[in-house]
Fold each of these.
Amino acid sequence: MELKVGSRLAHFEILGLLGAGGMGEVYRAMDTKLRREVAIKVLPPQFAEQSDRLARFEQEAVLLASLNHPHVAAIYGVEHVDGVPFLELELVEGPTLADRLISGPIPVPEAIKIAGQIADALEAAHEKGIVHRDLKPANVKLTPDGKVKVLDFGLAKAFGPEQAARLSGATRVGAAAMTEPRGHTQAGLVMGTASYMSPEQAEGKPVDKRTDVWSFGVLLYEMLTGKRLFDGKSDAHVLVHVMEQEPDWTKLPPLPNGVQALMERCLQKDPAQRLRDIGDVRIQLQASLSHPIQARGGAAPKNATARRLMWPAFGVVGAVIAAVVVWVLMRPHPAPVVAADAVRFDIERSGASRRRGSRYPRTAGGSRSPPRDPTEARSSGYARSRRRRPGRSKARARSTD
C-alpha cells in the first residue's frame, strides 16, 4: 500500500517515503497528537488476511516494545486502520551502515566502536530472549551524533516463515527456501538475508542467539574490509559459500591484538564451537581499543618503525667504535726514552762499585757498550766520566801513600 505525501493514516500525517522492501514501506510521518515525527512501517495488505498471524505479530511487538535500549530503535505501538496494519516506530536520522559502506571500508577504531554498540544492542535483546535473526548493514542506522541504532528486532519471527516467504519471494535451494526476512525456524525453510545468515540458518535448522553472533562477525568483517564476506551470482551460490567457504583473513587490515581471534570464534560454522554470548564480544572489543594496532608480523607498527629507524643509528655508532679500536691498535708506538739522570746515577756510584762495573754506561737493553756516535758521547755521562779520570788517579795515589 503506497501512501501519498500529505495523506493521513489515523492521526499520522505522511511526510514522505523513507524506504520499501518485502516487509512493507516505511514513511516519515507526524504524530499529530504528540507533535513528534515518527516512522510508520505499513505492512503488506496480505498480512491482515490471517488473523492468527496478526495476533502473533502484535504479541511480538509488545515484547519488542519492552526493549528500551539506547542502541535499539524503539517500537511505539501497533495500529491497524481500515484493515491496514502498521507499526509506529522511532524515527532514526542518519544513513544506514549499508550507505556508509558504499564509500569503502571503515577505519579500524571507528569500526570497532560501531561494532561495540551493535553488540551492546544484541546483548540487551538476548537478555530478554529476543533474537534479531536478520542482522545486516541495512538494519543498522548511524545517527549524526555518532550513535548506532539497530532496527527491526524480531520482526521476521513475528511474520512467520510461510508468510515471510510469500511476501518476500523465496528462492528455493534444494529442499530449502531463502528469503530476506526470517520467521520461525523450520526444517526445509531458510529465512534470512543470504550473505549474513549462519550455516544453521542456511540449512533450515533451529537457531538461537548464536545465529546473531555469526551475523555480527560477518558484519564486522565487512566493515573492516569494505567487502561482503560471502557473495555470489545468486542466492544459491551465496548459500554454498556460507556453508563451505572459510573467510579470507588476509584481507583484514592490521588490527588490535585479539580482534581477529575474536572474529574467528564468532564465525565458527559449528554453533557448538562458536561464542555463545555476544556480551563477551562487546567486552573484548572495548578492551581492544586500548591496545596498539598490530601489523601482520605481530608487532605494533609504531614500534616496528622505531626499530627500523634505530638500526641505521646502531650501525653508524658501531662503525665509529670499530674505527677507533683499529686506530688505537695500528698506530706506531715510540721507543722508550732513557733518562740522562739514570745514566749519571750509574756512573757516580761508589768507587767499589765502579771498579766492579764497566766504565761504559748501560744501554736501554741493559748491556754496557761505548757509544758509537760522538755526539751521543758528548751528551752522555760517559764523556763526563772521562773528564773525571785524572782526579780519580790522584785520589788513588793519596790512598796508596
Amino acid sequence: MSTLIRSSGDFHVDRQYDFVELLLAEKDFHAAFDLLQSLVDRVPNWAWGWYKLGEVAHVLGRMDVAQTSWERVIALDDTDPYGAGAMLNLMGVRDDDQMPAHFIETLFDQYADRFDTSLVQKLEYTVPERLGVAVSELHPDRFKATLDLGCGTGDGWGRVSASFRSSQWRRSFARYAAPSAKARDLRHLVQGRCIATAAFGSACV
C-alpha cells in the first residue's frame, strides 16, 4: 500500500501542524499560511509541509509562493506522491503529458477502501452486472478465462464471474486493492498501469 507521509519528523512541528488543520477548517487561511511558513522554515525538507503551503498560498492568490512551494516538493521527492506537478500543470507552469505513476497509485490507495461503496451505491455503477448479462446471452457456454483491466478491487469480477469457468487475470493499479480482490476469488492479480498511446488504444506495463 502506498501511503502519504505527512509527518515532518519533528514531534513539536507535527503538533503545530495539527493547529494548521484547525485554522484551515475555520477558513482562516492567512493565519494558516503564516504558521505553515514558519514550520517549513524550521523543517525545510518537509515535503508535505511545502505542499500544503502551496495549497494555502494558491487559495490566497499568492501564486509565486504556490509555484515555488510545489517546485520544492518535487525537488525533495521527484516521484511526486502529493501531485505537486499536477498543480503546477493547472497553473500553466508545466506541461506534463501524464501524471506521475506514484501519485496516481497513492491517490487510489487512499480511496480504495471505500471505492466500491462510492461507485456502486452513490454513483449507481451497474456496468459489471450489465456486462455479465450480455456475456451470458452471447456465450452461454462460459469462457475459460478473462482479462479484466480494472482498478483491482474485484468488484467487477464478483458480479460477472458466473460467466467464466475457471481462472481470471486482473491488472491492478494499486497494491492496496489486492486483499479485497483476492477475497473475491481472483486467481491472478497483477499490478500495473495503463498508458494511453496515440490512436492505438492503450498499452499496459
Amino acid sequence: MSEPLCTRYFERELVDHYVRGHCHHFAIGLHRLTGWPLAVLWDREPSSEEGADPLIKHVFCMTPDGLAIDVEGTRDLARLKAVYKSVGGAEGHVEPVTELGLRHRIEDSETLRRFLAVREDQIRLAQDYMRGSDAFRALMAELGSCPRSVSLEALRARQIIRLLDLTDLRQDATIEDVDALCRSALTPTGPVAAVCVPASFVLSARMALRGTEIPIATVANFPDGKAEPDRVWQEVHGAVVAGAKEIDVVLPYLAYIAGDREKAMAVVEAAREACGESVVLKVILESGAFEDPELLAAACRDAIAAGADFLKTSTGRLSPGATPEHVAVMLDAIKAVRDEQNRTVGFKAAGGIRDPRDALQYLLLALERMGHDYLRPQHFRIGASGLLGPLLSVPDR
C-alpha cells in the first residue's frame, strides 16, 4: 500500500482550491489564528542562480512538533518536499518567513506578484473555513491549537484593529521606530486600516509595507495649523509624491474660531488640490479648542464643503483630545450631509484614546448615528499610538 500524502485529509474541493494558487492565503490565515510560523518551499535556493527569480512551490505553516501543515493536513518536511519533487522536478528549498517578509518577496518579484498577490478577502475566507470545518477543528484539537469561539469583547477589539490608524508622530522618531510600527501593522487578526508617520518617513514606510494593501498616511500643517495655504500645498504635494495615500491636515482652528473662516478654508482647499482625486483628505478640526458646539458644527460643514473626505477630532497635542460630546457634534454634522446630499464623509476619532473602552465608545456613537455599514475603514477610523497592544491583549473569552 502506498504511503499517504498527508496524515489527514480535508474536504477535496477545498484542497483543490487552496493548492491551486491559494496556499499562501490558507497559510497566512492559519498563522494568524495559531501563531505558528510560516514557511516557504522554493523551487531552489534563492541565491543559487543569479539573475533568475526562484519560484514558490508551496506556502505552509510549521506546527510546534516540526510538522508541515496546510489545507491537506500534516506531514513531515521530507514527505512534503518529496511530493512537490514528484510534480515539479526538484526537491526544493524550505525557508522560514514572516508574513511581512513573504509579502515583500512576492512584491519584489514580477513573476510571483502576478500569480501570488496577497488578498485579505481570501485570507478571511480561509479562516472562515477553519472555524467551520469539523475535520480541521479535529486536527487542531489533536495538535493543541483549536480555533475557539470568541467573546463579543474580542470581536469588538478585532473590529477596532481593522479601523485603526496606527500612528507614530513623535518628533524624535527614528527609521527603526517606523520599521517597527510597520511590522506591527500586520497583526495576528489582520492588518490595521493605515499607518500614519511624519512626512519625512513616508517613503521608508512605503518600502516597509510594500506587498501589503496598508496605506501610508501623514500629516500637514501639523500641529498648530498656522501655515499659509501655499506652504500647506507644498507639504501635501511632497507627501503625495513620496507615496502617501492619506493626508491628515490641521484646520487653522485658531483663525476659524477668531472669525477668519475664509483663511481657514483656503488651507483646506489647498490641501484638497494637492491631494487630487485619489488621495484621502482628513481635516483635523482640533475639536477641543471649540467651546461652542454650534461653531464646531459650522467648521464641520465648511470643511466638508471645502473637500474633506474625513473629519478628525484632534492632533493629540491639545487637551482635551477626542470627547464624546465633540464626537457627537461631528457625527451629527456628517449625518446631516449624508441625509441632505447623499454624500458619505468619514470620521476619525483621535487624541487621548489609550483604552479599548474609549475606542468602543466612539464606535458605538458612530453605529447609533450612521449604521453598521459605516463601520468600515473607508468611513470610520480610530487614530492612536498606544492602543494596538491593549486591543491585542483582549482575551478571546
